[in-house]
Structures are given as structure tokens and as C-alpha cells.
Amino acid sequence: MDFSSLLNSFIPSWNSVGLLLGFFSYLGIAGSILPGKLVPGASLADGTRLHYRCNGLLSLLLLVGLLVIGAWMDYVSPTAISDRGCELLSTTFIFSVVATLLLYVAGCKSSDRSSSLKPHITGNIIDDWWFGIQLNPNFMGVDLKFFFVRAGMMGWLLINLSVLAKSFQDANLSHSMILYQLFCVIYIMDYFFYEEYMTSTWDIIAERLGFMLVFGDLVWIPFTFSIQGWWLLNNKVDLTIAAVIANCCVFVIGYVVFRGANKQKHDFKKNPKALIWGRPPNVIGGKLLVSGYWGIARHCNYLGDLLLALSFSLPCGMSSPVPYFYPIYLLILLIWRERRDEARCAEKYKDVWEKYRRAVPWRILPYIY
Ligand code: NDP
């Protein structure tokens, strides 16, 4: 492909705008009307809590079901996304910029200034636009932070499924593609199965909604996490049985640590006496869990996520660094995030956090970091 046709492939068409708006409309409607557990979020500065309807799994299954029926009846092309990946990327990027400009204006005009939930305005336009002004903005009753992360995770799966359809169409379905697709499906379905755990994560409880988060959720997650799939469409990899087994082991260990650590923290927040690995938990200052994974490293959940990210890339072999973009990016992101979370916790928990640091000296990987 020459440079000018590559450039042309990024020009948004009405088709890509329609696909994106159709997807968001579906998510907005399905999220509002489908049944789901109503989960209370963390306490806000004024003592109130938001409630999140966790019906992501049902919304996803219904959407995939509708798309399969649509494809079967020839209304929808299974390769609709993979055929226009570049223009969907630029359309989503433009949408993110516009959405964050609107969020910025809404944040500046917010009437909440007198309450303890007042918007955070530094006066530095770039800063306020990048990091956001409001902690929990909503549109027509839909919590936008929860909505965008859901859209990103579902978008990732839809891109992957479309890439899979493309490899069927091109008759080049490989073991590597099957492995990559399988790991991602398990990870994404698991995310929606445990969607309520999301309500106690850093993004939801602490991060304001600005360009960084909107872009991260809508553009970064679906388009960069699927790089391995795009890469496998055009590259052939021969995996030995030993490599497949090793790859599955990395995935399983990563999954057990990632899910186990996040579950232990979530259970602890709901019930501080909940058993951890069959025993009553050790707690510091009545607030911080020192048992289970949280007694091994202060962010074992990040370690599990990093192993998972690696397992998504290993099916691509070692011939190119391109498929390793995601684990490398995640490593940088999680090291940075761990530092920010550490600063937030040190300020919030004061000497209790200091005691926790002494009890659990490792940040992410015991004996190394
Ligand atoms: P955590 O889920 O680790 O949440 C951190 C918060 O947990 C702290 O601010 C504190 O909040 C609480 N906490 C910390 N230590 C303890 C303890 N010992 N006992 C009890 N509570 C504690 O962080 P994230 O939200 O960043 O990550 C959640 C998951 O999402 C991780 O598995 C991560 O890997 C994944 N993730 C994935 C990304 C990706 O791009 N794939 C990006 C970001 C995250 P409090 O004030 O409530 O006590």
C-alpha cells in the first residue's frame, strides 16, 4: 500500500460514523434497560455513593447474538470492522477529542461548585482537558466513566471477532490466531462476569474523566490491545507444542494471580472478615489487607495482568517486537500507576500505609521490584 492510499484509509466515512454511533446507542440503551446487579460504588467526598448497574455481560452476549443473526441473514458483514480498521480508529479518535471538549465545557459550567463534590479546575486548560474536571460526569443518567470503559472492552472483543472472521475469509486461520483469540475472549468475558469489581478500581474511584481516560478507554484499549490479531492476519507463525503449553501456562498463572488478587481486595472491602485462602485475614489498622496476594506484593494484581498481557503476545512468536507493544506499554503504565496509587494511599492512610509498606516491601514482583 502506498503512502497516499494509507492516508486515505484513515479518512472517516459515514459508514464508520454510523457504526460507532450505532454501537454507543446500543450500549446506552442496553445498559439502561437490561437487568443487572445494582452495585454501590465507593463513598464520595460528600458521603453519598453512586450505584452502577452491572449488566455488561448480558449487553455483550445480546450484542454478539444480534450480530451473529444479522450476519447469518446477510444484514451485517462479519468483516465490517476489520475492513475499515483505520477509518474506525480515526473516527473514534475524533469522537474522543470532541467528547472531552464537551466534558471540559460541562465541567467548567458545573453548578456543583459549592458542594464537597466540586469540580477540580486548575485553570491550566491543557491540564484540565487532559486529566478532566469532574470525577463522575453523567449523560442522561448514564455514568460516562463506567460507560466508556465498557465500550472499550466490548470494542476490543468486536474488533477481535471481526479480525477472526477476516482470517476465516482469507483462509489463513492459524493456531496462533486461535490461541490469541481464545485468551482474549476469556479475559474479556471474565471482565464482564466480574464487572462489579470494576467499581472499586482506581479509574472509577479516583480518576477524573478527561482526554486521558476517554482516549484510553475508547481508542487505546480496543485498537492497541488488538494489534496481535491484526499482525497475525499478515504474518505466519509456527508454534511448537512446547511453546503452546508454555504459553497456556503463562496465561493460567497470570489469570489466577490477576483474578485472585482483585477478588480478595473486593471481598475484603465488602466484608473485612471474609476468609482469605481459607483463613481469617490479617489487617493493618483495620483498613489494609495483608493476607493472600496483598501480603506478597502491594500490587500483585498488576503482576497477574502483566503475565496475561505477555500471554496475548506469545502466540505471535519472537520474530517481531510489534505484537509485544501491549505488554511493554502495560508495564510502563502499571509502574507509573503504582507510583500514583502509592502516593494517593500514603496521603489517605498516613502511618497505616507506612506500616503496610514495612510489612509488604515489594511493589509488584517479589524480590525484584
Ligand atoms: P487496584 O485495584 O489495585 O486499586 C488500588 C486501590 O486499592 C488503592 O487506591 C486502595 O484504594 C486499595 N488498596 C490498595 N492496597 C490495599 C490493601 N492492601 N488492602 C485494601 N485495599 C487496598 O488498582 P487499579 O484500579 O489500578 O487496578 C485494577 C485492575 O485493573 C488491576 O488488575 C490492573 O492490572 C487492571 N488494569 C488494567 C489496565 C489495562 O490497561 N489492561 C489498566 C489499569 C488497570 P482505597 O482507597 O479504596 O483503599
Sum up the structure in keywords:
mainly alpha, 2 domains, 15 helices, 62% helix, globular
Describe this structure in words.
The protein is mainly alpha-helical. It has 2 domains: 12-231, no CATH class; 239-369, no CATH class. The protein is 62% helix and 6% strand. The chain has helices at 3-8, 14-33, 56-72, 80-83, 85-109, 125-131, 144-169, 175-193, 202-206, 211-224, 227-234, 241-270, 300-313, 325-349, 351-359, and strands at residues 37-43, 49-54, 138-139, 142-143, 283-284, 288-289. The strands form 3 sheets. The chain has a two-stranded antiparallel ribbon. The chain has a two-stranded antiparallel ribbon with strand order 3-4. It has a two-stranded antiparallel ribbon with strand order 5-6. Helix 5 (85-109) runs antiparallel to helix 10. The radius of gyration is 21 Å and the shape is globular. The mean pLDDT is 91. The structure holds NADPH dihydro-nicotinamide-adenine-dinucleotide phosphate (NDP).
Helix and strand topology:
Layout: H1 3-8, H2 14-33, E1 37-43, E2 49-54, H3 56-72, H4 80-83, H5 85-109, H6 125-131, E3 138-139, E4 142-143, H7 144-169, H8 175-193, H9 202-206, H10 211-224, H11 227-234, H12 241-270, E5 283-284, E6 288-289, H13 300-313, H14 325-349, H15 351-359
Antiparallel strand pairs: 1-2, 3-4, 5-6
Helix pairs in contact: 2-5, 5-10, 7-8, 7-10, 8-11, 8-13, 12-13, 13-14, 14-15
Bound molecules: NADPH dihydro-nicotinamide-adenine-dinucleotide phosphate (NDP).
Residues 42, 201-203, 205, 258, 262, 265, 268, 288-289, 294, 299, 301-302, 305, 330, 337, 341, 344-345, 348 line the site of NADPH dihydro-nicotinamide-adenine-dinucleotide phosphate.
